């Protein structure tokens, strides 16, 4: 955060003392370390003189964007922490400092998807159930997104729906349905997992189109995943655009998500 030293002004340019840091109020979501470094004054004075500085460092250790942390402070989509410390040295007037540390919110670098099961009879009956795992950035592999909200967005360009025909009882199936999930909540409780994303054709639609001799047929469409921390004003994109879809023949059904495919006889 800062490195400080005591010295006599030019033309003397003599180091008095590097001093030391005394932390009077520790941060809530990180840790403080101190040490010494050598270098030149950043004010341009004594350019030929190398000084020893007392340095103070901050490391963010919360590894979450979640406001469930007690007394967490967030401003403008960033997490804030505070440190109060005094630099002091012999014969030099102590200097108090208030440090406000602003940490940008962390976003997933990507996600993986894995097939869980076929949805039983019901509202989602016949669709494939897919579970997703969010990947933290490489520089913070222990980061946890639990409690944040993920939502699918439609980037456009879906279809065609080759099952549909004029006069069909169903609308054309060429886009997402607009799902929203909470990470590590509901049906999926493992850290950084979310789901289930139900992808494919419902049994009722499959039976209908088979009856009308449309099989084999199917559809695909894009899905952009977005995420919103408890402090975000809006959802933000993460990862690449996925391809979702489903198809069926007279005897089989297939569910497709993000390069993964699952087929069953049904």
List the helices and strands and how they pair.
Elements: E1 2-4, E2 6-7, E3 15-17, E4 20-25, E5 30-39, E6 51-60, E7 73-75, E8 78-89, E9 92-104, E10 110-118, E11 128-135, E12 149-153, E13 180-182, E14 193-199, H1 203-211, E15 217-228, E16 236-237, E17 242-248, E18 252-257, E19 260-265
Antiparallel strand pairs: 1-6, 2-3, 4-8, 5-6, 7-8, 8-9, 10-11, 11-14, 12-13, 12-15, 15-16, 15-17, 17-18, 18-19
Question: Could you walk me through the main structural features you see in this protein, from its secondary elements to its overall organization?
Answer:
There is one protein chain. The chain has 266 residues and is mostly beta strands. It folds into 2 domains: 2-104, no CATH class; 110-265, no CATH class. Helices cover 3% and strands 48% of the residues. The protein is built from 1 helix and 19 strands. It has one helix at residues 203-211, and strands at 2-4, 6-7, 15-17, 20-25, 30-39, 51-60, 73-75, 78-89, 92-104, 110-118, 128-135, 149-153, 180-182, 193-199, 217-228, 236-237, 242-248, 252-257, 260-265. The strands form 5 sheets. Strands 12, 13, 15, 16, 17, 18 and 19 form a 7-stranded antiparallel β-sheet that branches. Strands 4, 7, 8 and 9 form a 4-stranded antiparallel β-sheet that branches. Strands 1-6-5 form a 3-stranded antiparallel β-sheet, with no helix packed on it. β15 and β16 form a beta hairpin. It starts with a strand and ends with a strand. The model has no long low-confidence stretch (mean pLDDT 92).
